[in-house]
Structures are given as structure tokens and as C-alpha cells.
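Problem statement: downstream parser choked on a complex file, so we are re-checking the raw output for the nicotinamide-adenine-dinucleotide run. The parser issue turned out to be on our end (a line-ending mismatch), but while we're here, posting the original submission so the record is complete.
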Amino acid sequence: SKVPTLTLHNGIEMPQLGFGVWQVPDDEATRAVGTALEAGYRSIDTAALYRNEEGTGRAIAASGIAREELFVTTKLLNGEQGYDTTLRAFDTSLGKLGLEYVDLYLIHWPMPARDTYVDSYKAFERILGEGRAKAIGVSNFLPEHLERLLGETSVVPAVNQIELHPQLQQAASRAFHAKHSIATEAWSPLGQGKGLLEVPTVVAIARKHDRTPAQVVLRWHLQLGNVVIPKSVTPSRIQENIDVFGFELDADDLAAFAALDEGRRLGPDPAELNG
Ligand code: NAD
């Protein structure tokens, strides 16, 4: 079944479910992205940091899928923040992907102690104006970092991609995003497959719907309104993770999920990461 889209605040349609390629080596990314495109994914989430923009681009080129049917996201390398360096880094990413434009360009981390995200975002606004990104946004921004962008720049970020899963539900960020028409995109939506998929509540809900734990967790995200980008290099799991549009969680399931929030991060604290 087809993946529904969310309409970003600037009118661009973004698939609500995409394919993430963090920690996938370049060669393997070509294979994995190829498998995902065959399975029906049309949104791919990469980053300069992942060193697989070329492999991702090769899979896109080989797929024969029309460019306008795809939604490609990449992210600015932390070490390239700053106005001029951002413009150059963007050219490099486009070249590696072999594309004329990306659908979404994100600042990967705010790195608040470096104080370069506002200048970087001003370069993003220029790239957006040139039509070389259809939408611009950020990743790992806390509400305080978003407040600063809203005050000092003119384009509201279309998306904030943050760590979000049932054990880190990010209520404050989600409320802030909703208030400002910023879409919430969940990274590590499956909790990196570590532990979350064995939590008894999750296993019981999966059994009740005759689905897998990964599928009910993805369903939880979708029903919350999040964009999700699960990662797998295993063809059967790539299939399984997109087969989540034929069932619905009920109010009891959602209440059981709500009780799993521990506020515990798997990744770095955005206030602390500066390199
Ligand atoms: P994830 O939550 O998507 O989990 C992926 C892992 O879960 C896999 O490696 C596998 O071990 C397991 N898994 C996947 N499908 C499964 C299934 N059906 N059944 C059982 N186990 C399964 O974790 P992730 O890769 O960290 O996050 C997804 C994507 O988010 C990344 O690939 C990347 O694109 C993005 N991301 C962004 C940032 C950021 O800072 N912006 C950080 C981390 C990840």
C-alpha cells in the first residue's frame, strides 16, 4: 500500500515513512536503498556524516524512478557549519548524490557552543531561494535553539528531526513543533532495535494485532503524526517496516505506549554535542 504524505508548511509533500541509512557503508547503501525503492519507499534519509551519499545516489540513478516521485534528505556536516562553508558543503553533497536538488536539507546538530547554526541556516535560506532544496530544516534542535532561529531568520524550519521512540516520547518538543507548524521527524524510531522491541507491552500489542513489534512501534509513530525513517539492511525487515498501513492501534494500545516513556536518550544530548 502507498505511503501517505504530510504537507510541510511550505506546501511540499513529504512521505510520512522513509528509509534511513545511518551506519550503512557506501557500497551496502546502494544495495539497501535499491531494495527499499523496490519495496515502495520513496523517501531516503542520508547525511554527509554517513559517508554514503554516493552509494545512495547510485541506487537512485539505477532505480529509474522519476526524480519528482522521490524525496531525498541530506544533512550538513557539523564541521562545515558557517555561511560560506555551508554553501560549499551543500554543493559537495549534491555532487555526491548526483542530483540537481534535494527535497530536504537539514542542519545535523545545533552545536550551541560553536554558535554557527544561525549563519548556517542563512546559507540554507539562500539554497532554498535558489530552488536547490525544496525545503530546509534542522535536526536535534531543542526548543531554545528553534526559538533563536525563529527570532533571527525568516524561513521557519519545515522539519526538526529528533531522537524519538516510545521510550523517549519528546512531548515538549512535539508541542513546540506543532505550535510553529514544524513537522516532527523521528530518528531511531525503533529505538535502534535495542530492547524496545522486546518490551512486554510492545510484544503483547504486536501479538494482539498479529503484527511484529517493529510494525506496531512504527504504527504508534504514524498515529502520533510523526515522520519515521526506520533503518534496516535486511530485505525482509525493509519490507516489514513499510507494511504498516493496513491496521490501526486503538485507544488502549496508545495508552499502553504512552506509559513506556522513560525520557532516556540513546544518542547524545543536543545541548552537549559540539563537534
Ligand atoms: P532504528 O530505530 O531505525 O533501528 C534500526 C535497527 O533496528 C536496525 O539496525 C536493526 O538492528 C533493527 N531493526 C530494523 N528493523 C527491524 C525489524 N523489522 N525487526 C527487528 N529489528 C529491526 O535506528 P537508526 O538507524 O538509529 O535510526 C533510523 C534513521 O534515523 C537512521 O538510519 C538515520 O537515517 C536517522 N538518524 C538520524 C540521526 C540524527 O542525528 N539526525 C541520528 C540517528 C539516526
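For whoever reads this later: The chain has a mean pLDDT of 97.
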